[in-house]
Amino acid sequence: MRSGQRAGVFFGGVRVLVSGVLCVLMVEQPMVAAAATRRAVVPSVQQIKSDQSALHALNRLTFGPRPGDVAAVREIGLKAWFERQLNPQSIDDSALEERLAAFPAMQMEQAELMQRYPSPAVLRQMIAKGEPLPSDPVEHAIYADQIAFYKAAKAKKEAEQAVTAKNGGEDAAASAVDGSMAKSAEEMKGSAALPGDGVDPATPAMATHEEQFYSGLDAVRVINLPPDERMQRILAMPPEELVRFRRSLSRSELLAAAEGLSPMQRETLAVLQGSPRMIGAELLQSRMLRDIYSERQLEAVMTDFWLNHFNVYIKKNQNEPFLLPAYERDVIRPHALGRFEDLLVATAKSPAMLMYLDNWQSIGPDSVAARNGGRLAKFAQNPQVKQALKDRGLNENYARELMELHTLGVQCEVSADRPVSMLDKACGRGYTQQDVTEVAEVLTGWTIDQPARSGTYRFEERRHEPGTKTVLGKKIGEKGEAEGLEVLHLLATSPATAQFISRKLVVRFVSDTPPPALVDRMAKSFVASGGDIKTVLRTLFDSPEFWSPEIRRAKVKTPEEFVVSAVRASGAEVTTAFPLYQALEKLGMPLYGMQTPNGYSWMAEPWVNSGDLVNRLNFAVSLSNDRVGGVQTDWARLLGEGSGQGLVVAGDSAAEKEKKLEVALLGQAVSDRTRETVLAQFQDQTTQQQAEKSFGIRANEQEPMAQVLNISSPKQRVRPPLDREAAGMAGLLLGSPEFQRR
Amino acid sequence: MASMKSMADQSDWGCDLHGRDAARRQVTRRGFMKGGALALIGTSTIPAFLSRSVLAEVTTAAANKKKLVVLFQRGAVDGLNVVVPYKEKNYYAMRPSIAIQEKDVLDLNGFFGLHPAMTAFKPLYEQGHLAIVQAAGSPDTTRSHFDAQDYMESGTPGVKVTVDGWLNRALQAEVLKDKPTAFRAVALGTQVPRTLQGKIPAIAVSNLADFSVAGKGPQASPISNAFQAMYDESTDAVLHGTGQETFEAVKMLKSADPAKYQPAAGVVYPNTAFGNSMKQVAQLMKANLGVEAAFSDIGGWDTHQNQGSVNGQLANRLKEFSETIAAFWRDMGDDAENVTLVTMSEFGRTARQNGTGGTDHGHANVMFVLGGRVKGGKVYGKWPGLANEQLNEGRDLTVTTDFRRVLGEAAYKTLGARNLEMVFPGARVSPSEFLNLTQA
Lengths: 742, 440
Prior knowledge:
The structure holds two protein chains of two kinds. Chain A is mainly alpha-helical. Chain A has three domains: 7-30 and 555-740, no CATH class; 94-168 and 201-293, no CATH class; 309-496, no CATH class. Chain A is 56% helix and 2% strand. Mean pLDDT of chain A is 83; it is low at 1-40, 168-212, 643-648 and 691-701. Chain B has helices spanning 20-24, 48-54, 56-59, 89-94, 121-126, 145-154, 166-173, 222-232, 237-256, 273-286, 313-332, 403-414, 420-423; strands at 67-73, 83-85, 106-107, 112-114, 130-137, 185-188, 203-205, 293-298, 339-345, 365-371, 378-380, 401-402. The longest helix of chain B is centred in the middle third of the chain and has 20 residues, at 237-256. Chain B has a single domain (45-210, 267-433), classed as Alkaline Phosphatase, subunit A. The model of chain B is unreliable at 1-64 (pLDDT under 50). Chain B has 13 helices and twelve strands. Chain B is α/β, with parallel strands linked by helices. The interface between A and B is large, with 124 and 117 residues.
């Protein structure tokens, strides 16, 4: 991500005008179906207790309670609710599906996705080989435009490099003396943009001229066409015109150009800016929306857990974004509550993982492919290609992480300093460097078929290392792909894996200091059930440890849990999820953004520090004051529902409001001190006005493409007036120490 | 990784091996000159002593204090291609396509040469500010990134139960003359790294310009004050403590306004997450906020595949790394005299290249030590050689210098941490063990 451009997210919202039009509220549908809180019955002690249990379950097993969730759990009973959550297919999720319909690419099969939205690698290849463009008119336009844009950018870059090369000599000499390499590079960059200094005069100057020309009436005329006609007109533009058209659009014009289009049309318009960007934006937004809105919360939480356990980094290269929609949809989610071994095999075969941990390129040193490579190397002209062919061989990246992070755990690593005798009993003989190498050999040939074209898993016999291997003391006879499955079975069924996974689940769901007895019981369930994740979670749910009063509200929320739970608690309407993703980025936990394969920590430690706290407080204040772009609260309605009237009660005192907000946002009372602070803040009118003024407002820096994708989100609605008092209180409550825990 | 070359399509998704930090640290390059009397003091044309006297109230604690900067190259940098043993025959035999040829290295001493992407380091070495320790590392032989990093950061290889980091203990061991400030230990990033965790409060900040609650004015906003009151009184011990540190730091930052301290004339940091981090380290130090220990990290060194040679992934990383550090050095100006900067990485990489044009997890590595009192211009440490029998487990460079001897010396001489048994328990690092990289 470029720096600067997106830094303004917390303060980036457009200032909302308080119009005071209460009638707007009348047209609103109720926010949550289960608004069962509308009873004015005095709760019994028993009900309070069971509500506390429901709240705890929601805090731990979902991304946080929404208004009305506790009541909904009460209605069907805790255990029944949990069982329903374990069987996500039994839960209607059509409201979410409706939202996700804005992202057609996320539903496409891998090959279909890559065919329609070409990766940069494909485009480069097509240019190099002069391949014909697809005949489908829409695809033709997408390809032609992206190629034209690529060529223009390349020409510009080459022109810049020409200048750099020319000036390079003197500058390098100067910088050798004073070490100012960075400075001279910067200066050269600057000079490349100056007209008439020896760069090919045609390219940049002409382009500027044409753009200025285009931006006049023509663009406006196109934008003003009815949607279908407009789309046809855009697709019919020759590539150069399309590029100019696209470049001439301001942010608001771009949004106007997307108005009224179908999701597929909008996606097509968005992809003209580059496929990886569009796919990345859809991927991140749909995951955000699912976490916030899915009724299948446990499935969402477990999907998140496994995506982190089997971490893949979206910026590994330009191909990785294309592989992640299927990774989440076909590899992780279907197995999130299934059998661990199925999940493990699915990840091992997934192009996303094969690419992320390099296994797709690993070749058996004695395989046919390696031998052929050696032979081909003799004929290769290019010395680099020659060497690459000669050196083809093993890469042990995946093999190591498979054992260290995905299954056995690093506590089972044998090294010179840690002999077998020092290992955990469950580790057995542990794994050695030799095991890593042998597992890498076993998995040679597990590769990706045409990574940039079809992007599907393939076993390639020719790359597979021949011969018998030994893994964890077990002989693995030569049998091609089945060797890998045998090793994965071995790893998936190891007691060490059962321990490792159980412990991680306990850290996620129960405590940063996992009770060993609970881990052991879950590990036993794991082994006894053949790695059935549902069974393991039932053991967790039925354990006294999970319900122990000491652990309630004891887990510090990760940034992801904090952001998602805040949005859920506020009942805010998300029309564009991208700013929420940016908030996570700022908080240090962007989705698919962990570069290293260990994933993010579920412990409090990394997430409790000054920088993180400042960002959390700012997010809380921004969210509640509608200053997170694309996210809209409606405090008046939330309060109205809480009061059982469905309407704002005009006479509510600040204290009454505050009390309702406590219940709505936290499900329970906050500390007296927190309450006093919240109230003190709003007794003094001048303080309140100062608070409003003090929000630094920056220009709205929202990702324009994210807006294009969401422009006619089904839930778009008229902005309700902002209840400033409620918003201010809510911001303080969402930033309170109490809300940082679950 | 960079099997697909980056394409000039403005895509944000294509950056290869940009540090994991790159995604997490958003730093604005917006200028932020503010009104008022102090606004003029911001360029390096104003002598340092003048700005110091203006800010006298925050300077007392930190005046003339030595500062230690620790940089972690996460992901295990390939030290053999950073400080290249170009006279070692085996080197070329083991790395047929990724080796740096003799003609390309920046010669250091007739045996070692720097990777050609590190031209920014060459003058620092020649001026005697930059020292190199080759074949340094941990006595623990794990090949797990995460365990190895953990051991290095805790400073207790092989011991997992250590709760704090070596740098935090070094601060604990220091004999204090003044009251420490909230910025005594600071990490640039979204998290306090293991290295700085412990009893001494440490601040994590990724972007100084955003380090303010609910508004950026020179005064704390009412909402900020409300939050402060809330956290002050909280019975949540962890959040209470973090809250206190946070609001104190926010307050200090508001009065010192480090945004004034823009890089010295002619100094340009690379526009990357790491570049921005180091720029801000310099700002904090120049603003006299009492920084004694600063930490930053840079990722993207885990080059299993297609790491390149003179050019390529590793070269790009090294260029950014060395140019950033050189910019920081120049930016610190006279203050550089008091700075010691140490770099480290969890382990080195295999001596032989692997089957995909990269290197796998190895053992010993290279460390850089830069500073005003550093006796630089020299490659320290015993060279273990690359013959098969000289290699660790027949595959990696052998460790000949325990990393704690390097860090111990820095803690002792720069921070004045006299009790090294406390900093590195069990390591028996004593002044007689020092490599004498720096003057006392």
